[in-house]
Design a protein that fits this description.
The protein is of the alpha/beta class. Helices cover 47% and strands 9% of the residues.
Length: 351
């Protein structure tokens, strides 16, 4: 599948910079908000960008590698948390309500059959991935199917009026998958990628690291092509998120990138189509061990750094008010000219 993603036009950049720099403030005084305002203006090709119907897609899937004891939680927690999302009781439900996000929960590959629900998207590829300590997590055909379904899901949200999409996930074992993806695609030792996930102790972390190191050695021949890497180590929720991110960027939506798992999905997406990075706003740096290094690899500057490590898209939704603030100051803040305030240069001329 080809993804038609091109960099935003730079034609308006001088005008956007002039507008930002001539607000009633010292140059650069709004820091990262100024960069975000410029980015959104370029994405939308306008001096007055707008954020419409923010939407969050939470992708859920189970991982066969859980059989190897990489998580202190049983696989059943994935399905239990999906039900919690659908009942509105999880942290992400609270934050999504607070910030006005449309929320959709996507069953990408949970080892459970769910009843119909208005907020549930049934896009299951299979009942969880295989154990990549033994064999590839999924076939290439399954991987391509997951990507295609993700593309379609983001297109649906755009068609419903969204021009800003956030991405969350739920899947016991998915920090193991993300760590392997990071290790291979960033050529980084697994010891620098793996973290405590849902809270393994020191002994659990050592075991998790050893398991993943063995898996990387086992699949050493499957590390040349990005799709093969994703199929070998990824989860259905990660693969579907990759597709959704690529699809959102095709429609020139703003992508709010959450924590370690979502950033690992973006890493894969960026290897498929590098220009996707122009459309990404990085919400936060999580407490997961490899995330800061992964952000640095992508050249990303996150908005928040407050020790979040929950996933679910919580960081993306919590960072959204800062994105709103970037748009609002660009659209509503007075300029030196309109407010009759002297610029620094004018003050110097008067002295």
């Amino acid at each position: 599948m080809k993804y038609d993603i091109s960099p935003p036009s730079q034609a308006l950049k001088p005008a956007l910079l002039h507008k930002i720099d001539h607000k009633t403030k010292p140059l650069g005084a709004l820091g990262l908000l100024e960069s975000i305002a410029l980015q959104l203006g370029l994405i939308q090709n306008t001096l007055s960008p707008q954020l419409n119907r923010p939407a969050l897609l939470i992708f859920a899937g189970d991982h066969g590698v859980v059989e190897a004891g990489v998580s202190p939680y049983p696989q059943a927690v994935t399905a239990q948390m999906v039900l919690n999302f659908l009942r509105g009781g999880a942290a992400i439900n609270v934050f999504a309500r607070q910030h006005g996000f449309a929320l959709r929960v996507v069953d990408a590959g949970v080892n459970h059959v769910f009843d119909d629900h208005v907020d549930l998207v049934k896009a299951k590829v299979a009942m969880g991935t295989k154990n990549f300590l033994i064999e590839s997590a999924m076939t290439l055909a399954q991987c391509e199917q997951a990507l295609a379904r993700g593309v379609a899901l983001s297109a649906q949200e755009v068609a419903a009026g969204s021009n800003v999409l956030a991405f969350g996930e739920m899947g016991i074992g998915n920090t193991s998958a993300a760590s392997c993806l990071m290790s291979v695609l960033c050529n980084t030792p697994i010891e620098q990628c793996v973290g405590r996930g849902t809270g393994v102790d020191d002994a659990g972390l050592a075991k998790k690291t050893a398991v993943l190191k063995h898996a990387l050695q086992l699949h050493a021949r499957n590390q040349q092509d990005v799709m093969q890497v994703l199929a070998t180590f990824g989860g259905f929720e990660i693969a579907m998120m990759v597709g959704a991110m690529l699809g959102a960027a095709q429609h020139k939506a703003v992508l709010l990138i959450d924590g370690f798992i979502a950033t690992a999905a973006l890493l894969v997406a960026s290897r498929i189509q590098p220009d996707i990075l122009h459309y990404c706003v990085f919400a936060h740096c999580s407490g997961e061990a490899g995330h800061r290094q992964l952000l640095a690899h992508l050249g990303a500057q996150p908005i928040l750094d407050v020790g979040l490590r929950l996933g679910e898209g919580t960081g993306a939704v919590l960072a959204y008010p800062m994105v709103q603030a970037a748009v609002n100051f660009l659209n509503e803040m007075a300029s030196f000219e309109s407010a009759g305030v002297s610029t620094k240069q004018e003050e110097g001329a008067q002295c």
